[in-house]
Write a structure and sequence with these properties.
Blueprint (H helix, E strand, L loop, with lengths): L48 H12 L5 H17 L3 H8 L5 H17 L3 H9 L4 H17 L3 H8 L5 H17 L3 H9 L4 H17 L3 H16 L4 H17 L3 H9 L4 H17 L3 H9 L4 H17 L3 H17 L6 H14 L3 H9 L4 H17 L3 H15 L5 H17 L5 H7 L4 H20 L5
Helix pairs in contact: 1-2, 1-24, 2-3, 2-4, 2-24, 3-4, 4-5, 4-6, 5-6, 6-7, 6-8, 7-8, 8-9, 8-10, 9-10, 10-11, 10-12, 11-12, 12-13, 12-14, 13-14, 14-15, 14-16, 15-16, 16-17, 16-18, 17-18, 18-19, 18-20, 19-20, 20-21, 20-22, 21-22, 22-24
């Protein structure tokens, strides 16, 4: 786990996709009944992610619940792909029983190939989808990789294969954004104006305007922003309009136009998207040293759990730029809201994320107090694990080890088997990532259920891979 000292860039998801569809048929082989504890690594294997991923596969194949079985194998396959083990990832996919999980895994495998510039191999996976929904979903993501890299011709070729109005519109919007990113604003505008879906047309125009503003061409940027808002105002679907306006509000905030951003956000009819926009604007206000204004902005978020999340983000951002006392007070307000939401399905997650953010902000004592106050054992364990990781990075080894022990104790009380397994996954990941290679060898041997064994090994492999990718001192 690494803590960035650079203020995070707020963003909104471009769209919330529902996952559904069909794919090619793989033979679903019966998995074994029962499992044995994880294999013990020798000195050559102890830091080899593939050893733990193989352990995870063997354990996953013994899981009785189809949902947990398939989700585990999907997560393993995605991790294998990220590690560059494409053939192993594809072998793992063959054990997945439900088509939806297979499809999700194959999309991520294809993306791993695309990010490694193995674009033809990624396209080959796309062509293998019989269902146009999955094929188009993957092609949209491949198009974005091309567009971001400035390979506009290749992006345009990928777009031609996409079926479905909104998929096509999103992909063309990515191309317009890519063109603006390279400075070709005339081409970007022409591309954006050709998008049929008004929501994505407005989003693309907003992305172009934001890039234009960063070049100092404020008048041109404002003209395009105004056009985008006009387009968004004509969207008939209220949720789609709210999403579009929220992206435009965020774009104007990123362009240092927070007053204009707030005007757009406050005009959004949907409370969910209005809250997302206000939360994002508040972070940009922190970046612009508008601390009091940021807190006022968060007070306009009606959904209390979302306001608490926003305050947590603002507090962490304030700490990153040295506003420590304001940060502490803002965390306190976020906590008060979270505790006041007792009984909400979001309470444990809110408290967990606040504790993690306090630790990242260097407020260890407060973080531990917050974590220990979480009633749900699973969330308490994950919070304590995150704090232990920060302590490890700070070189406070003794306190880190005590906190890891507390996290393990909470994980063992985690209620459902799934909750325990996810807690063990987090502990394994953070211990591996922070260089505590020997610690998991003892507690992983004590796990007995296939799901717990699987997720613990998966987490440890994820941590080893992250550690390899993190520069020294990063």
């Amino acid at each position: 786990m690494t803590t960035s000292k650079k203020l995070r860039k707020p963003a909104l998801n471009t769209i919330h996709w529902m996952v559904c569809g069909l794919l090619m048929s793989f033979p679903a082989e019966a998995h074994e009944n029962g499992t044995s504890p994880s294999s013990v690594p020798n000195s050559d294997e102890i830091e080899n992610p593939n050893f733990y991923l193989e352990n995870a596969v063997q354990a996953a194949r013994s899981i009785d619940s189809v949902f947990s079985h398939d989700r585990s194998l999907r997560l393993i396959a995605e991790t294998q792909a990220q590690a560059g083990e494409i053939d192993k990832a594809l072998d793992t996919v063959k054990w997945i029983q439900e088509e939806i999980s297979r499809n999700m895994a194959l999309v991520e495998i294809a993306m791993a190939r695309a990010k490694a510039d193995e674009l033809e191999a990624a396209l080959e996976i796309a062509r293998g989808f019989e269902d146009a929904w999955w094929r188009s979903l993957l092609l949209v993501r491949i198009t974005k990789i091309h567009a971001v890299a400035g390979r506009i011709d290749l992006a345009l070729q990928a777009v031609e294969r996409i079926e479905g109005g909104r998929f096509h519109a999103q992909a063309v919007g990515n191309i317009a954004w890519g063109q603006a990113k390279t400075g070709d604003f005339d081409a970007a505008l022409e591309t954006a104006r050709g998008i049929q879906d008004p929501g994505f047309r407005a989003w693309a125009l907003g992305a172009i305007a934001k890039r234009w503003a960063k070049t100092g061409q404020t008048d041109e940027a404002n003209r395009i922003f105004d056009t985008a808002i006009e387009v968004a105002g004509k969207i008939e679907d209220t949720r789609h309009q709210a999403w579009s306006l929220a992206t435009l509000a965020t774009g104007r905030a990123e362009a240092n136009q927070t007053d204009e951003a707030l005007e757009i956000a406050r005009g959004i009819s949907d409370a969910h998207y209005r809250g997302l926009a206000l939360a994002s604007i508040a972070l940009w206000q922190v970046r612009a040293d508008q601390f009091e204004a940021a807190l006022v902005t968060t007070s306009g978020i009606e959904e209390l759990y979302r306001r608490s999340f926003a305050l947590k983000d603002v507090a962490e951002a304030l700490a990153e730029i040295g506003q420590n006392e304001t940060s502490r007070q803002t965390f306190k307000t976020a906590l008060e809201i979270a505790i006041g939401e007792e009984g909400s399905i979001f309470t444990a997650r809110l408290l967990r994320e606040i504790a993690e953010a306090q630790a990242n902000a260097g407020q260890i004592v407060s973080a531990l107090d917050t974590a220990r106050g979480i009633e749900e054992a699973h969330s308490r364990s994950i919070a304590l694990t995150a704090i232990a990781g920060v302590l490890s990075q700070k070189g406070q080894s003794e306190q880190a080890l005590r906190t890891f022990d507390a996290a393990l104790a909470s994980a063992r009380k985690g209620g459902t088997e799934h909750a325990r397994a996810e807690a063990f996954r987090h502990i394994g990941r953070v211990q591996a990532e922070t260089g505590h290679i020997d610690l998991p060898q003892a507690w992983m041997k004590q796990l007995t259920t296939p799901l717990e064994i699987c997720r613990a090994n998966l987490g440890f492999a994820e941590g080893l891979l992250k550690r390899r990718q993190t520069p020294e001192g990063g």
